[in-house]
Automatic annotation (TrEMBL):
<dbReference type="GO" id="GO:0003723">
    <property type="term" value="F:RNA binding"/>
</dbReference>
<dbReference type="InterPro" id="IPR020103">
    <property type="entry name" value="PsdUridine_synth_cat_dom_sf"/>
</dbReference>
<comment type="similarity">
    <text>Belongs to the pseudouridine synthase RluA family.</text>
</comment>
<dbReference type="InterPro" id="IPR050188">
    <property type="entry name" value="RluA_PseudoU_synthase"/>
</dbReference>
<dbReference type="GO" id="GO:0009982">
    <property type="term" value="F:pseudouridine synthase activity"/>
</dbReference>
<protein>
    <submittedName>
        <fullName>Putative enzyme</fullName>
        <ecNumber>5.4.99.-</ecNumber>
    </submittedName>
</protein>
<dbReference type="InterPro" id="IPR006224">
    <property type="entry name" value="PsdUridine_synth_RluA-like_CS"/>
</dbReference>
<dbReference type="GO" id="GO:0000455">
    <property type="term" value="P:enzyme-directed rRNA pseudouridine synthesis"/>
</dbReference>
<dbReference type="InterPro" id="IPR006145">
    <property type="entry name" value="PsdUridine_synth_RsuA/RluA"/>
</dbReference>
<dbReference type="GO" id="GO:0140098">
    <property type="term" value="F:catalytic activity, acting on RNA"/>
</dbReference>
<dbReference type="Pfam" id="PF00849">
    <property type="entry name" value="PseudoU_synth_2"/>
</dbReference>
<feature type="domain" description="Pseudouridine synthase RsuA/RluA-like">
    <location>
        <begin position="16"/>
        <end position="166"/>
    </location>
</feature>
<keyword id="KW-0413">Isomerase</keyword>
Amino acid sequence: MTPDEILARVLYRDQDVIVLDKPAGLAVHAGPGTTDHLELYLDPLRFGWSQNPRLAHRLDRDTSGCLILGRHDKALKRLGRMFETHRIEKVYWSVCIGAPPQARGRVEAPLLKVSEPGKGWRVRVDPAGQRAVTDWVVLGQADGLCWVEWRPRTGRTHQIRAHAAHLGCPLLGDAVHGGDPAPVAPLHLHSRAVTIPSLAPSRSFIEAEAMPPIALRAALELCGASIARAS
């Protein structure tokens, strides 16, 4: 991304926190086989600070939307404690194949990260796994697809993707948990909004919202979403 492109993705900024609209397809940090990642593009987000902002949490490579960055060490420590105590509210939108068993509910199913020969790693529901809790609400349905809002209450890897598959409604475009190793559609998972207790005494909460990217828009609109403007 160019400096102008990443600056255009800033959803919120104060002296402590930046909320960025991460594009789908871009990893947040370096990893095995990953040469292009978000941390390479953070320099324009200093806004006069001596160091780049840093990740307060992670989003999957193929997940778009709200990503929280801390602008200095103290902010990162406070954000870390907020995540640990579940004080940061995260809202995700997805399009699923099929629908959950009810219009709204909570899934409590422990998740275990496993490696499979020739397939790499994945996350599955397993009694030996870590506690994982996700609330959901169905927002719309059409033609075998379902628009679902998810609110994870824990922060496990691939939590929403694994829980959706466990409920019988895997995410559209999920090659790992969806049963189709070569889906035509991209992963339809978007970090729609975050609410953060403010680190400054002048306000109580920070709220930011990201519009769904174009690649997700057609399926969302089919299921009843009204997308007000382009992202």
